[in-house]
Design brief:
mainly alpha, transmembrane helix, DedA family protein, VTT_dom, DedA_domain
Length: about 200
């Protein structure tokens, strides 16, 4: 954590807020820094007194939403080009993209809500929403809902655990526990749906 702080403009509060805002925005265009890192740093800076806790919550929330809007419009205007390149280079890509579109058209709201804690999925969901022409107002409605919870939770965890010597370890353990619970819920839901579908088809 201290290593990360060495690269931040701690001497200027205004510049610090700007940098914190830009981190989640840049992560939406595949900056190799997950937004969790930016949120954890923001909470830790609030604990150290460099920034105001409530102000940094708002800044990080706006940064996350701005980043998702960037991703949405990247998908909307460049999604066709990107999809065609993937189809030309990856076997079965057309079939997989077709299934992804069908699933997104049917469960788009759930995808936006439940993908936020899942790093590998979260980064492409805004682009998928734009590419598959999900209504922008609907996308933002669900994105804002989950982002309020997500940003508030991650920044608060870092803020309230800031006094611990093993901050990153503690947060990582909590995050892994949350991921494990989410994974079990998804697996349970998938198994139930599989059994139900096979039963309806007369296979069970």
């Amino acid at each position: 954590m201290n290593f990360a702080l060495a690269f931040l403009p701690l001497e200027s509060i205004s510049a610090l807020y700007v940098v914190l805002f830009l981190l989640p925005v840049l992560s939406s265009v595949f900056l190799p820094v997950p937004e969790e890192v930016a949120l954890l740093i923001a909470g830790y800076l609030a604990y150290l007194g460099f920034v105001n806790f409530w102000a940094v919550l708002v800044v990080m929330f706006l940064g996350v939403i701005a980043g998702d809007i960037v991703g949405y419009f990247l998908g909307r205007y460049f999604g066709d080009w990107l999809s065609q390149n993937i189809i030309n280079r990856v076997p079965f890509a057309a079939h997989l993209l077709g299934k992804a579109k069908h699933y997104f058209d049917r469960y788009g709201e759930r995808v936006v809500l439940f993908s936020r804690p899942l790093l590998s999925i979260r980064m492409i969901v805004p682009m998928m929403a734009g590419h598959f022409r999900m209504n922008l107002a609907k996308f933002l409605f669900y994105d804002v809902l989950i982002s309020i919870v997500w940003v508030g939770a991650v920044v608060s965890v870092s803020y309230f655990l800031g006094s611990g010597l093993d901050l990153i370890t503690e947060v990582r353990e909590i995050k892994h526990a949350v991921f494990a619970i989410i994974g079990l819920i998804i697996i349970f839901y998938a198994v139930i749906r599989f059994i139900k579908n096979n039963k309806n088809a007369g296979l069970v």
